[in-house]
Amino acid sequence: MQRRQSFKTQKQPLQVHHKNQTDLSAWRKGGRIDPEKNVQNHQSPNNQKNDSKQGSLEQALSYFEKVQDRVSLKKNSVLQKHLTTVESIGLQSGLPPEAFDVLLNVALSGKLADTVNTRLLKSLLPASVIPETSVVSSVSWLCVSKCSGNIQLLFLRWLIAVFDFIDHKEQLHALYGFFFSFLQDEKMCPYVCHLLYLLTRKETGEYIQLYEMEYHFISYSGMQSHLQALLSLYKLYCPELVTITLPGKMKTYFKNSEGPWKAGINTVRRRNQENSPVFQPLFLGTAQPQSRKRKWNTQLIIPASSTNTNNLEEDKKKNRVDLYSMSESFRVEQLQTFSQLLQNIHHLEFPSQMGSVLTNPLLLHYMNCIKDESIYLRLYYWMGQTLQEECTWCALDNNQDEEEFKDFLETVYKTECFLQEGFSSCEEFLYKSLPLWDGFCCRSQILRLVSWIPLGSFSEIKSHLYDPLAQFFFTSSLYFKCSILECLKELLQNWLNWHVIHLDSESDSQVHSSNTTHSELLNEVAELIHFVGWISTVALRLENNPTFLLYFILDFYETACDMYLRYNLPLLIMPPAGVFYPALLSMDSVTLNQLCYIMYRYRTNLVAAKENELSKKEMVQFRFSNQTYQEYNQYITAMVGCLWTSSVFQKDIHPQGLRMDDELLKKTAVQEFKNSFNIVYHPAMMGYAVLFLQQAWPDDTTFNFSLIKGKKWNWYLEYLYAHGLKGLKVFIESSINRVSQASHSKAGNVQV
Amino acid sequence: MAAGAAPRPARRGGRREGGSNGPRREAAPGLVSVMESVEAVARTLLSFGRLSRGLPFGRAHGLSSRDPLLPLAPRSQENADPQRTAFLLRKQWTLYSVTPLYRFSNAHLRDYARLLSAFIAAEKQKGLAVEVGVELDIKVAVSSLPYLKGSDQDQAAILVQLSSRSPASPKNSEEKLIWSGWFCCVSGDNLSKNVPEDFTCLPLFLVNGAECYTSIVGSWFQKTFDCSFRRLAISPLILSWMAAMWTGCKVDKTASAMELVFSVPCLPQPLDISYAIHPEDAKALWDTVQKTPGEIIQEEVDVFMDCLYSHFHRHFRIHLSATKLVKVSTAIASAHCDGIIKVRF
């Protein structure tokens, strides 16, 4: 989760982005480095959401730490409360590492009743890891037998169930002999066998007591499967020590001791896998604990980063002919911090399965500075296959887990944000799955992935992306429409960012792409903007011009109007009349203000383009057709006529504009129709005008708007600017040349 | 049905190759797409037939008519020892598609066998489920099948066999084959050329044996060669194609009936309809449908199936075209939509 915070989901502006990316401390992985940090890391995700929860857990822990005498559960509401806290947190989100010491101590010390101890033990699920020290101290409690036999058994079962989550096992190995002595206990024997089975390692000399065990084994009546399993392991490691012949064909299993923790443990595993790819156990093969799920190869598991140990000698020799071949390679499992990455970057090995980089930001950093195509190909193959296989609406058998798929898409999206680049496997997946999509399942994830479709990759983007998107757009709710517009805005921004970076690197390397390529890119961007213009026009009609929708549409154009200056892309496309006029005549000052800002940016961009055209005569031949200027001039005439000179009905020359005959206007029976859309009378502005009148003439209750003129007009303007209409301000200051205050009706130099 | 309708994935143009500095990533030309293609299955089945008996087609048209199926003359006939291909027959094979193997080399097959064998031993001892004593001793053989490929450019097929040696009995006892799987390349000429360096394209994986071994072997390949496995389903369209194709083959008179299994969708309980046809009748029908001997086109397959459907409708008043074809079984071979095939001859 720490990682999640560091991932950038915003890419605008780029500068901020870089800042995030070099926030090195964020990449330090918690866990092994230092215990304080560890605790901090594990708490931090909770802090935001569950401050109160965290507080109550702290209270509960300090209570259990101090509890002295045997307290009755029924009578003591304080105990009840704290016990419930521990249970709910333990089962829902897992307990932080520091809780285990306290809770294990109290559960095994026998201070409280067995019912309490049982409930405590059953809720002991880790949020991430269990510190080894707390396990060791609880084993010492076991040795002094303060607690009942049932609790001892439950503790052993717990230990087996959570074995994988203990952070270190060295000291635990040192206790091998202690556990071995428990074999004598008839009830504990099966669980102790299992535990020993997990603890036994080939290299340690743990077989000294084998004879004793054999004795025990022989003296035992009947074949105990658990002992037999342990013995077979011993025999495998040290065949010379185990003299007993084990029965040939017999499968033996340990009793399933995961019992009450099973569901919780699966959750922890999944969570750990998400958060900490380096420590995550590899779940593949038959020993897969999440057996609820289908076939071996179709679990949606991002592989752990592990070095490819199967590299053959010959391969290694071959690979090391390069410059850095002197030193040993650095294994990915060891990679924990950014500084380690920097120190070992010249001899770091990539993981055996490239998919694992998705959850490992350090490797993503590494990937970003490596120019090996095969890395991307490996990722491409794996991701393409996984997306296809796991897609809940494409796959043939419908037993896929939607939540899991959602998480996966989320991870892919975050990786794309991190690399600032879309994956082509993802793009292909979208083209294939969008026509089959219901528009609902994993919606936000899919739309986010759409925003990372790479620029210039695919010439038939229209039929594969725009057509299905248009279908969803027209048939869905207002909210979904806005989501699609938002995602298309992101797409445009990502394309433009890509273009800027691409231009930079081109000028660096002195490689100039051909003009045709460039114009193809321009065409693709233009196509996107035209598409958005088209769906926006239709949507505004369908939905009857809601402000909410207009906001998202104009938000898109805020990016589109600045492409030349901000992204160095010689392309400007004006919004269609179907967007411009509804925005101009909107009832809402926010919309009008936004439109003013956009028109101001269009003007700035067009003026700059014209200047460049006149001075440099280069790179301007691309898109700045006269038509763009013409469209801009038509709009600006309409806008100035509307807001300022009250002449829109005469002067608007746009074919879809507001030009109307005087005869017709007279029939509307509106008096003073001429100025009905200027900054005083405009429906979006009238509210300001009223407030202004109230302040300027507090005694006048007639609302005589015609008072706002001359000097008052300027005051009114200042009043509007002071109320946050900055767009209007820059628009008026740039596009309206106020020759003198008296002749404000004269708007000069509005045309570029 | 969906397979036919799915759009072709992006074929990436070489546009960005120039500026390798910029945000780059030119993916390999639609390899994944081809691997998904169930055409591969049809081809493999043809390869089967070719090895065993030689199908009577000179050439056949693929599902998309511009993409001809493989010419059916065996590529390396001299090598196609029936003994060595016999293991492929009369077994049920489960199909997987595999992404290209990274850094796989035919020169190291022995080493791979050794490593895989060690991996299997380790896997078998891991975890809660313990199998004592037996079956730890699994022998792994990885070999190349150079005669099994679709075209000269194709990579030779790779066979993986697991056999057990019972520790109870002495070494000289017969090893028992417990699992086998083979990777093969059936993609035709144009694909193999486009495989990028360091990658080996063996997009089809066929498995016979217990799932637990498939899992272990698959995991090992995944980890070692960074590839990924996916069950390959066979669409009803392809199944009908196979039905027509196999009907046309000459078989002995005693041959078993051709059987088509349909499943009825949207029912609370699953309902399957089995439609058995005498092979000679089916052959007679097909002969009237097929215009050019040695060539099949989609239209003919459609007509053939429509005839069968209308015959069924006449007798049972059931429109089979509204159901889903799930299995085709003929004297030559059978195929199930779940991606399971079996070749009898």
From TrEMBL, chain A:
Region (Disordered): 1-55
Keywords assigned: Centromere, Chromosome, Nucleus
BP term (GO), one: CENP-A containing chromatin assembly
Pfam families: CENP-I
GO CC annotations on file: inner kinetochore; nuclear body
Bias type Polar residues, positions: 40-55
Localization (cell): Chromosome, Centromere; Nucleus
Family: Belongs to the CENP-I/CTF3 family.
Protein name (Swiss-Prot/TrEMBL): Centromere protein I
Automatic annotation (TrEMBL), chain B:
Cellular location(s): Chromosome, Centromere; Nucleus
Any Pfam family: CENP-L
InterPro entries given in the database record: CENP-L
A GO-annotated cellular component: nucleus
Region described as Disordered: 1-29
Biased composition (Basic and acidic residues): 15-27
Keywords: Centromere, Chromosome, Nucleus
Chief location bin: nucleus
Span of the signal peptide: none
Similarity section: Belongs to the CENP-L/IML3 family.
The protein's name: Centromere protein L
